[in-house]
Amino acid sequence: MEETTKRFTDCRRPLSGRCRSGAGKGKTGGFRRDIIVEDSQYLLDSLTPAESWRIFRIMAEFVDAIDTLSRVKRAVSIFGSARVEPGTAYYEKAEYLASKLVRSGFSVITGGGPGIMEAANKGAAEAGGTSVGMNIQLPFEQKPNPYANIAINYHYFFIRKVMFIKYAMAYVILPGGYGTMDELFEALTLIQTRRIKAFPVILMGSDYWRGLVNWLKNSMLKGDMILPVDMELIQVIDDPDEIVRHIKKFVII
Fold this sequence. Notes:
Rossmann fold; 253 residues; seven-stranded parallel beta sheet; single chain; globular; disordered N terminus
């Protein structure tokens, strides 16, 4: 364990085998030396008698989230990268989309961080709507943005993910990284397996998503890993006004 902790301290991503000097520099600088992984962060470690007490923290976080979000109605969850800067095309599109959704009677939910999340919260708040930011506590990278008028801080990713699904009537996915992909494919999996009622899942930014959509068609679909009907779970739409119209076809306001 000492060796594992040392490697994580020396390099943010030891499993990739790629460490660089100057770690932790810059807003999105990749590798930090100040992150120490503790024993409790390994999900597969053997459980101790004290581990069972963690269930009460989990329960409390669920109760707090449900109590806070129970008053949020007709929400659309918007996802995308935390690294998108204000003034860029995707930032402005997310901001405009959120404002249009609010003016059409929807609330907006985001991950509560910077980038696309900030843009969507800003657009919703400045349009006078409900702007929910569900921030995750991380040892690096993400801080809450100031535009959420309902803000929740989560310790556990899985509780946060449940809340995104539970209170969303649609997902709009803008360009993003692993976290964005995680939310996208969880929604698709739950819809495909009928664990939740189907709702619109929209990819915004056709240039960014083209490679992924082509891979789904040319590898997964052609390889019989998914069915043709599964491809219908995703819509690629670039125009914010068209996105709002598409969502309103499926959601009664």
